[in-house]
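Example 9 (inverse folding). The structure is encoded as follows.
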């Protein structure tokens, strides 16, 4: 038995734009220049010129960063083959056979080869320049658009209300030029819009403004002031809003505030391609400050909301991973086989195995080094990397499911891992890094990260009733408290556990297998060797499923599954009492529909109607 989809998909997946975002009628008199009431709170306005609705080009070093490396490699190949001739000319060394340039020189064709090389170099430079000139983008009040291509033109559009996240990557080579790659993720397969490359400071400013536009902040400002929605960077509207806020705007364009200095981008001209400023004319000093600056600017987030991973814990967690166990088993097999006379296995497997193991550990270590997750004004920000850095900002309402898990080898240390399901991340090469919110952390870290990912989990769970009918009602607890208690408990703690008759199919974990429901989420718990606890917000549920095979029918059990977007989280309860599971299925189906009908997370800055009060702590 399968419940129909409780909602079309995600509110951000609805092809019909929200009616609230429709501009007012033309007959409405312009009010952009009319200062609103001083008591009316105003949302910050976009401040970068890249959101003015006009077409812009990328960083001038983009051709070199995207394809110029190929030209450098070809030039290096030519020089490497020409090295014997250089040595012969300078030191009079003996001629070495087999050099193609030497052969061309002997035949008198070196001039033609030089001409061909020069022509190829010129054609390559011109091609990259034309490609850069034709690669443009613009950010409007509802979409982000990118046009690219010379012979084959491509035009990509991303609706702002479908944005699932905005990430900024800074490869080491690009950091030397003060450049960064910005990616706007939207719902759908292979639906990213990439801007490679922008100035490093420009990328940060553009991400903030894109998320501001996607949040519906301008719509909220228009509803509060009665003004029509202007372009993202209407100077008159911005000036009027700043004047009405009671003071001059800071350098970041937020009324009545002072811009925080960014040590990573200090001295960079926001309006230019990342060049040196008047205050710090030294380009080398500026690049050194960017390379040595922390991945997360301390001014962007409160210290209490920042979670970091010590390098020692990270190394030990990799040593105690499942990959290490598999590696040890393979190593024992190779050693035993070589001792029994099969020494060819030692030679064939040990070298590739060591190379693969070293590459795996190095890749996991460098990608998790300098990891941090924090709550910022733009959303939840996850950053990592040493030489090449990357950070991803998830706006509210984009988390479809959360899984807190603990391998057996981590249990003595009390470490946990958090992964999520998010639209647009499945099937990508960076899916693992974009869905892992906490590679390894303590229970306190789990508490903090859960509060960042879903702030509504911290509000009282009014539906968490005592398991005993004769027990007096306990003090209200939050959904997060139920999750944390359910992680370490052997049974109970607000969960409806599987009955004892489930032990034939879950011999070790039947006590920990269960489910719970609060007013905002469905909680599913399972696993003994590898503990799992999944949290699925009611508004993010795609569909529900209840099944009962022959074996479950004999045991009077059912299998419950909560389906969301594709990702690493599998929210299932493999064994539940038939009566309790059926009742939960019906209750969940009703609550999912109610939650989806009142969800406005795709425009998270838009205020709900006064007739529908929002519970305290709810991000809507």
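The amino acid assigned to each position is listed next.
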């Amino acid at each position: 038995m399968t419940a129909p989809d409780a909602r079309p998909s995600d509110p951000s997946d609805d092809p019909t734009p929200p009616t609230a975002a429709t501009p007012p009628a033309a007959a409405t008199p312009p009010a952009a220049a009319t200062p609103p009431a001083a008591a009316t709170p105003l949302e910050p306005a976009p401040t970068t010129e890249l959101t003015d609705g006009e077409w812009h080009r990328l960083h001038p070093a983009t051709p070199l960063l995207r394809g110029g490396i190929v030209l450098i490699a070809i030039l290096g190949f030519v020089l490497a083959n020409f090295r014997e001739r250089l040595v012969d000319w300078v030191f009079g060394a003996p001629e070495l056979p087999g050099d193609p340039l030497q052969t061309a020189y002997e035949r008198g064709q070196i001039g033609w080869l030089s001409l061909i090389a020069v022509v190829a170099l010129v054609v390559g430079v011109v091609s990259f320049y034309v490609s850069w000139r034709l690669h443009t983008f613009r950010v409007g009040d509802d979409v982000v658009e990118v046009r690219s291509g010379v012979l084959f033109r491509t035009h990509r559009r991303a609706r702002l209300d479908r944005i699932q996240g905005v990430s900024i990557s800074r490869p080491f080579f690009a950091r030397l030029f003060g450049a960064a790659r910005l990616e706007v993720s939207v719902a759908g397969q292979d639906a990213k819009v990439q801007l490679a490359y922008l100035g490093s400071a420009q990328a940060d400013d553009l991400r903030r403004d894109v998320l501001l536009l996607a949040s519906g902040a301008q719509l909220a400002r228009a509803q509060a002031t009665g003004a029509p929605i202007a372009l993202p960077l209407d100077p008159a509207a911005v000036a009027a809003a700043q004047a009405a806020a009671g003071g001059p705007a800071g350098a970041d364009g937020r009324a009545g505030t002072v811009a925080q200095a960014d040590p990573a981008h200090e001295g960079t001209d926001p309006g230019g391609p990342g060049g040196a400023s008047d205050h710090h004319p030294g380009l080398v000093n500026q690049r050194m400050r960017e390379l040595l600056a922390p991945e997360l600017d301390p001014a962007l987030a409160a210290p209490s909301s920042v979670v970091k991973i010590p390098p020692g814990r990270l190394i030990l967690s990799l040593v105690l991973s499942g990959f290490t166990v598999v590696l040890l088993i393979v190593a024992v097999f190779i050693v035993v086989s070589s001792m029994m006379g099969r020494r060819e296995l030692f030679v064939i497997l040990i070298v590739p195995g060591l190379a693969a193991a070293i590459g795996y550990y190095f890749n996991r270590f460098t990608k998790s080094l300098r990891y941090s997750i924090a709550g910022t004004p733009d959303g939840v920000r996850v950053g990592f990397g040493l030489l090449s850095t990357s950070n991803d900002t998830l706006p509210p309402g984009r988390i479809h499911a959360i899984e807190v898990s603990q391998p057996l080898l981590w249990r003595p240390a009390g470490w946990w891992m958090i992964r999520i399901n998010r639209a647009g991340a499945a099937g990508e090469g960076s899916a693992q890094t974009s869905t892992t919110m906490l590679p390894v952390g303590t229970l306190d870290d789990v508490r903090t990260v859960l509060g960042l990912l879903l702030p509504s989990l911290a509000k009282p769970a009014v539906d968490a009733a005592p398991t005993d009918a004769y027990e007096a009602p306990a003090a209200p607890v939050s959904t997060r408290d139920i999750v944390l208690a359910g992680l370490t408990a052997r049974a109970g703690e607000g969960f409806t556990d599987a009955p004892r008759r489930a032990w034939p199919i879950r011999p070790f974990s039947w006590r920990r297998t269960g489910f719970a429901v609060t007013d905002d989420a469905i909680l599913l718990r399972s696993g003994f060797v590898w503990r799992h606890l999944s949290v699925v917000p009611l508004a993010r549920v795609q569909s529900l499923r209840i099944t009962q095979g022959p074996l479950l029918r004999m045991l009077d059990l059912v299998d419950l599954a909560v389906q969301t977007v594709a990702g690493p989280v599998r929210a299932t309860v493999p064994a539940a009492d038939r009566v309790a599971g059926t009742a939960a299925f019906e209750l969940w189906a009703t609550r999912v529909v109610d939650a989806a009908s009142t969800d406005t997370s795709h425009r998270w800055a838009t205020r709900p109607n006064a007739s529908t009060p929002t519970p305290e702590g709810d991000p809507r």
